[in-house]
Amino acid sequence: MEQLHRPPQLHRLSCHGIGASCTDCALHSTQWILCIIPADRTTAHANTVRSSARPYQHLSVSAPFIAIVPAWARVKLINDDDPCGLVVALHWARLRETARSALGTTACEIPCWFKAWDPFLREAGDTLTALHASNNPDPRCLAAFADVFALHLVHRYGQTTDTRETGPSLTQSKLSVVEHFIHEHIAENIQIEDLAVLLHMSPSHFARAFKTATGHPPHFYLTTERLRLAQSMLSEGSFPLIDIAARVGFQTQQHFTAVFHRYVGCTPRAFRIMHYRP
Predict the structure, then answer these.
(1) Positive or negative: CA dihedral 93, 142, 181, 67
(2) Which residues are within 8 A (CB) of 2 and not within 5 positions of it... i.e. 6 or more apart?
(3) Domain ranges of the chain
(4) CATH code for residues 13-163
(5) What is the CB neighbour count within 10 angstroms for residue 30?
(6) Which has fewest Cβ within 10 Å: 86, 91, 131, 163?
(7) What angle, rounded to 10 degrees, do the helices at 203-214 and 172-184 form?
(8) Contact predicate 48/58, CB 8 Å
(9) Residue 246: CB atoms within 10 Å
(10) pLDDT per position as a tens digit, 109-162
(11) Does the fold of domain 169-278 match that of domain 13-163?
(12) CATH classification number, 169-278, choose in 2.60.120.10, 3.30.450.20, 1.10.10.60, 3.40.640.10
C-alpha cells in the first residue's frame, strides 16, 4: 500500500500507513491513543516496553478486527512484505471533551488495550486512506473525522468499560452480534478468542456465558452452523465437495467429510444423493 504522509501538526487526529514509522515524538505521549486498522493479510503486533512502571501488555490484530492501544506502545508488523492498513492517532484528552459535550455523559473512558470487530471504523479507515491519497487532506475534514471517531469509540465501548464481565449470561442482542460475525466469516478460521473479542470478554468467560445462554459450547454452535450451510449447498447446488468444504470453513475435504459424518450420520456425498433438489 502507498505510504500515507502525515500532514503538519493536527490538534486531534493524525494518520500514517500501518507500515510507516511515526517520527513525531508528541504523538507517543499519554495524551494520544492509536486505532490500528489492518487490511488484507497484514497482522500488527502491539506491546509495551517491559518496565517496572507499567505492566507488560501485548496483542495481535489482523482483519477484520481493529485495535486500540496507547500511543506509547510499540507497533510492528508480523508479515510486512506488503503491509496494508492505517494507524490513526487520536488526541484523546481533546476528543473526550467533544464526546462528553455531544453525548451529555461522563462515561467517556475507554480501555486502552483491546481489539474489536468494528466494521464502522474499518469503513472510516478506508475513507481516510482515500483522503490521504492526495497528500493534502482538508484539516477541517480530518477534524470532523476526529469527532466521528471520538463519538463512536465512547458510545460503543466507553459505556461498558466497567461492566464488561459482570453478568453470567449473554443477552439476545449480544448473541446476535456473535451470530452475525459467524455468518459473515463462516469460511474463515474462527477461534473462540475472536468471538470473545466481539463482546470484550475473556475466552473462558465468554465460553461459560455462551453455554449458559444457548445450552451448547461455542465450538459446537460454530460447527453446526458450518454443517447447516453445507447441507443447504449439498441440497441446492452442484458445487464440488472440496469447494463446499472451503466455503464453510474446513481446511481439507477429508476433515469436512469426517466431521459431517460424525454430526449428520452420513457422508456429504451420501447426503447429496438423498437430498439433492436441482
Answers:
(1) negative
(2) 17, 133
(3) 13-163, 169-278
(4) 2.60.120
(5) 11
(6) 163
(7) 110
(8) yes
(9) 16
(10) 677 788 888 889 988 888 888 877 766 777 788 788 888 888 888 877 775 444
(11) no
(12) 1.10.10.60
